[in-house]
Protein 1
Amino acid sequence: MGGLSVAVGVDDLTAWLRRFAAVVHERRDELTALDAAIGDADHGSNLDRGMAAVVAVLDDAPPADVAGLLKKTGATLVSKVGGASGPLYGTLFLRMAGAAGDGDLDDAAVARALRAGLDGVVARGKAEPGDKTMVDALGPACDALDAAVEAGEPLSGALAAAAEAAAEGRDATVPMVARKGRASYLGERSAGHADPGATSVTLLVEAAAATLGRS
Amino acid sequence: MKKLINDPADVVSDALRGMALAHPELRVDHENRVVFRGDAPVRGKVGIVSGGGSGHEPMHGGFVGRGMLDAACAGEVFTSPVPDQMQAATAGVDGGAGVLHIVKNYTGDIMNFEMAAELVAAESGIEVATVVVDDDVAVTDSLYTAGRRGVGTTVLLEKIVGAAAEEGRPLAEVADLAKRVDDAGRSMGMALTSCTVPAAGTPTFELADDEMEIGIGIHGEPGRRRVEVAPAREVAEMLLEPILSDRSFTDGVICFVNGMGGTPLIELYVVYAEVAAILERSGIGVARSLVGPYMTSLEMAGCSVTLLQADDELLRLWDAPVVTPGLRWGA
C-alpha cells in the first residue's frame, strides 16, 4: 500500500468522535427503545450523556496527540456513563489509546487500535461471539478492517467494509438469545430485537467510515 | 409522563439535595453523588459500601446510617454508578479496617465496582472485599449467563452485615458472613404495571389491564412470562413455588414482602397473609418479617417475596439496632 496510506491525526479523530456524538444524540430514543425491549431502557440516554461530556472535552481542552485524545475519551466515558456501556466503551477507547503509540496512525495502526479496543471489550465484559452484545458487531468489523487493510485498500474503503460488516453483525443479533448483560435475564424472550450495544457500536464504526481516511 | 420532577436530567441530583436537607445526620457528597454516614469514617470499623442505579429508594441511600451502610453511591436512574463514585465512597469510609463492597449482580454494577476496586488497589492501601448478591430465582443461573439478578436479599444482607461490621468484626469475617447471607436468600417478583424512567419518558413496557408480568427484576426489564391477573392468593403461590423448589427452607426464616413502589401497603399485607399461610402449610416457621417498599422500581405496581434462611446468629444481627432513614429500630 505504501504511499496510499493516510495518516490519521487528532483532527480526524476529533471529527470521528464529534460525528459519533451527533449520531448518538440524534438516535438516542431509538437506542433507548431497543434497550427497553430487552434491557432497562437507558442505553441511548447514557451514551448520549457520555458523548456530550466527550464533546465538552474536545471543545474545552482537547489533548494534543492521538493517544492522549483516545485515553481522555475513554476515561471520560468511564466517569460519566455508568451502567455496562461506561466500562465497555471506556475500555474500548482506553485500549485503543494503549495500542496507538506515539504520533499519528497509519492504516494498519488504525486497524490494530480498533482490534485492541475489541480485545479490551471482550476482557472487560467476558462476552463471546454469539452472546448478543456489542462484540457481535465490533468483532466482524475488526475482521473486515484487517482483511481490507492487508489487501491494500485505502482506509476509507476499508472502514466502509468494516461498517458494512458491523451492520451485518448487528442484524445477526436479532434472532439471538442473550447470554450476557441485562437482556440475558429474559432468556428466550430476548430474541427478536437487535442488541442495543451492537447497534450503537455499528454507529461508531459507520462514523469512522464517514470521517477517517478521507483527508 | 406525569412526574414530580423539574428536569429529567436533574432527578438524581435534586433528590440527593432533598435527602441531605431532610436527613442532616447524613453527609452527602453532591459532586460524587455519595451518601455518607455523618460520622464516617468510623475508626477501626469495616466500611460497608453499596450503590447502584437510582430509582430503588429507599435502597441504597436510605439504608446509610449506624448499623447498616457507611456509604451509598447513587447512579443515574437504573444505571450503575461510575468507578469515581465508588472510589470516593471507599476512601470516605475507610476507618483502617478495610471496606466491603456490596454489589448486586448486574453487568454494569459488576464492571464499575470491579474497575473501582482495581483503581483503589492501584492508588491506595485500602483493602477491599466484594460480595455479589444474586438471589433472583426468576433467572436461570448458569455458566453461560450473567447469573441471577440481585434483588430483595440485598436489603436483608445490608442490615445483617452492617450489624456485624458495627460489632467490630474484621473484614474477612464480614465478607464471609455476606456470602453466607446471599447463599441463604431467594427472591421472586411480579409486576402489575410498568414504571416510567424519567429520561425515557414512556412506560418501559406495556401491560394490558388484565395482565401481569411474573419474574420481573427491579429495572422494568420484562419478566419471564405474562399471565392473566389473579387473586393475591394465587400470586403468592406463583412467587413462592419457584423459591421453595430452588432451596430448602426450615424453621426460622426471615420473610420479606417488598413493594415495587406503586403498590399500597394494604395490598402488601394481603400478599403477606397469603405468603405466611403457604409457609405455615409447608412447615416453615417465620422468625422475623419485613413488609413494605424497601427496594422499589420507581412507581411500578407489584411486589416481590424474599425468604432468607436464618439462624440464631443471623437473627441476633437482624435484631441489632439500626438507625437509617429507611430502616430504624432498637436504637
Note: Chain B has a mean pLDDT of 96.
Protein 2
Amino acid sequence: MYNKAYGIIETLAPLHVGATAGEETGNLNLIFRDQFTQTGIIPGSSIRGRFRADMRSRHPGEEQRWYGHEAVEGRQDGGTTEALVKFEYASLVWFPVFCPGQPVVWVSCPLLLKRFKRLAGIDENVPAPYTAQRGLQGRQMQDRGKILFFNLGFLEIENEENLSQWIPHGTDLDANKLVVVHDNDIAMLHDMALYRQSRVKLLDDMKKVDTEKGAFFNTEALPEGSILVFPIALKEKGWKPFNEEQNSCELYFGGLESIGFGRCLVSLAGDYQ
Amino acid sequence: MRQIPDAYKKVPMMFRSPIPGRSQLQYLDKDKKKAREAQDVEKWVSEWTDKSQLIPEENARDVETETFQAKSYQVSWRFVTNGGQDDGIVRPVIGASGIPFYPGSSMKGAFRQACEQAEQLGEIPEGTCNIYCGNETDITPGCLRFEGAYPTNDWREGLLDLVHPQQGWQVITPDTNKKPNGESAYAQISLDRPTLRFAISSAKPLSSQQWEQIWQIWEKAIASGLGSKVSGGYGQINQTSHRILYKAKLKGQGQAAKLIDETGEFRPNIFRAALRGHALRIFGGLTDESTAQNLVQHLFGGIQGNEPTVGLLGFQFQPSQLEIESFGSGQYAQPTYDVKGELIWFLTRPIADPNQERRLKNLVARLMQFAMIFGGFGKSWRRVDHRIFFEEYYEDTYKALIGCHWQWLDKSTKRRNVKVGRTEKIAEFIDRVRDTAREWIQCQNQPLNENQWASDWREAWHPRNVQVWGRVAEDMDDSVAVHWFHKSYQQRIQGIQSEGSIYKSSVTGKLGQISLIWHRMYPVILVKKNPEDPKQPIVKNTCRYLELITIFPDNSKECDRFLEFLHTHPENFQLLWGE
C-alpha cells in the first residue's frame, strides 16, 4: 500500500536533539535517546518539521499536500489532511568513537544494524557481536584477536567478516574501521563517543564568568561523522523534497543551530520519486 | 574473553583515575624527571596524538559563498581554552576524530560582544546584532550560525605547556630555598601557534557587503584575544582592538624556557612576569603588604581574595625575528633565544577616568624602563649575558649559560625610553618611578602607608632595603663585577687583608636559591637635542655601558663585607641610590 523509502543522515557537525525537560540531569543538557539502546535518536516529528519548513520556503503551499494540511480555524475537522509522506525516527547505524592511542572506529551493535537491515533491505545476516574486518587496526595480542580499548574496558574482536555491505549508501565509511559490539555495550560506548563541552556566559565587559546571570552548564551532542537511518512511507510517488532531481541535501536538525550544531547531509533512497 | 596480562597498565591515561601512580595530569613528579621517565601528562598527550588526525586539505581552505564562509587566522603564540571536561587539567574541547576544537558557542559569544560594541560606537547600524545573533528580548534566532574552528596546521606539536607562577618566590620570600605555597609548576594543554579556520554559515544568502561586515566584526572580536589567558599573551592574533598604553621595540637574547620534553621556547609572558614583579617591588616599598598585593592584582589580575580579578593590563609581543638555538654541551646544553619584536601593553577594558588612564600609561612606561635599566626578562634575568660580557668564561664549554641581554631597538623607542645616560641620573629616575607609583596608588584611593612598607619582603624597593651601585664601563670587556660572581673580589694579602668573596654564597645565590644581587650592563645611549628639529632628538649609540649592581642586603657576614668593599669604590663604583 505504501511506497517504501529511507533516508541516511550523516552529521557534519555535532548534533543536539535535546531531551525533554524531565530528563535533564543537573546542569548537563542531555540529548534525546532511544529507550532500549540508550543511543541518540532524531524523532520523526523533528525530521518532518525540517522537511516541511524547507519545502514551504521553496514552494509555498506544496508542503500542505505532502506533509498534511495544518489546522484552519472554522473548518470542519480543522481542515487537516493526511500527509502523503510519513517519517519515523532516525536511529544510529554507526558512530565514531575516538580513544587515545587507537584510530577512530565506527561502532554499531546488532540491534541498531537490524533496523538498518530492515529499512535498507540488506540481505546479509546481521553480524555477531565483536565482529570487524581483517583490516581493522587495533592492538594485536599474542595468539589471539585484536584488542580495542573503550570506556567499558578492553574489547576483543572475536570474529572477522566482510562488513562492506553495512556501509550506508551516500557515505564513505571505511569498512576496515567498523566494529560491531554487543547490544549491552552500545550505551556505554555511545556515552564515550558523545561530543561534550561546557558552556558559560561571560561578563559583557570583561573576560570573566558572569556568576550572577550565567549558569555553567554542559552540552552533549552526537559527534561529527555519525550515521543515522530513518524510514519513509509514501502514499504517492513524485515527492521532491530537495532541489530538482537531487537525492541528497544539507539540512539542519536539532537545536543550538546558531552555535554550529546540527549540520547534516541527508541522502534518500528507495521508491519515492 | 580471556584475561589480558597487566591490563591496568594498558589503559589509556584519559581513562585512569586521577591519583598518584595512575594519571595525575597537572602534577609534575620530580622523581620521574630525575629518572628521565615520562610525566603522566606527557603520556596523556602522546596517547592523544598517537593515532590522531589532521583536518583534510579540502576542509582547510578558505571558502566564500553566499551562505557559507570560512577564514583562517594564525595565533601569534599559544592558544588555550578549557573544554571543562577534565578535573585535572585545562585542555580544549575535543571534536571530530580527536582533533581539538574551538566551539561555536565561544565564537558566537565573542562575535556578539564585538557586534554590540560596534553598534554602541555607531560603526554599524543599530539592530545589526539582532539580525546576526538573534534578539535576546524577543527570543528570535539570528541568521548566522557560528560553526567554530579547527586548527588546520599540524596541531600535535608543543601541546604541553608549563605554567610556573613565582611572584612570591621572586619578590617576597626571604628563604628562597623554600618555594611559597601554590607556586609549583603545573601543566596545561595549549595549542602552539595554531592556524584556526573559523566558519560561519547563514540560513539565507547574504550579499558580499554583508559578509564583509560580518568578517570585519569577527576581526574586531578576535583582536581582543581568543580563548583564555589573553592578558598573559595567549590567543593573540596580529592586531589588537584594545587601547594601547605602551609600545616599544626590543631585542634580547638569553636562556629560553624549557618545555617538559626539554625543547626550548621563547615565552612572551616573561614580560608580564617581569612587570608584575617590579610593580610589586615598587608598591611594596611605598605601602603596606596587602595594599601592594591588591594593587598588583588589580593591574595584572589574579585569584587572591574572594573573587578572581581580571587585570587592567594585557600585552602582546609580535616577534619580527626569532631564533631558538642551543648553547653549551653535554648536560650544560641549554636552549637559547635571540629575538627582536614589538611589545605592546594595552588596557583590557576601558577606564572611565581619562586622568587614571594617563597615570597608568606613565606607570607602565616607567615599569618597562625600570625593567630594562636594572635587569632583563625571563630566565637568569638578574645577570648579564656572560656570552657578551665574560667571553672567557666559556673557554671551557662545560659551563652553564648565564644571563640575558635586552636592548631598546629602534630610534623612536630609544627617544621615548632612554631616561638614563649617566650614573648620576639613576637616583632621579628611581625617584620618578616611585612618584609615578605613588600617584597611581593615590588615584586608586588606596592608602599610601609609607611607614608600613613591606619590610619583610626580600626585594621590596625601599631605600632601607635596596642599594644601587654603578659605574661606567668603557666597553663590553670592561665589566668588573661579572668576575666577582666567579672568584674572589679581594685577594688575600698576608697580614693586610683577608680574602673577600661572594662566590657561591647567599649573596650570589645558586640553583634553587635566588641571589641578592642584580647585575646589569645597560647600554649607554645618548639622546641629544636636535637644533634642527626639537621634536626629533638625535639618538646616538655608544659602546659604553652603565654597569649597575642592585643589592638587597640580608645582614649576612658575606654581604656586609661585600658592602664594605663597595664602599672603597673599587673601579669607581658609586652608591647611586639607597641608604
Note: The mean pLDDT of chain A is 88.
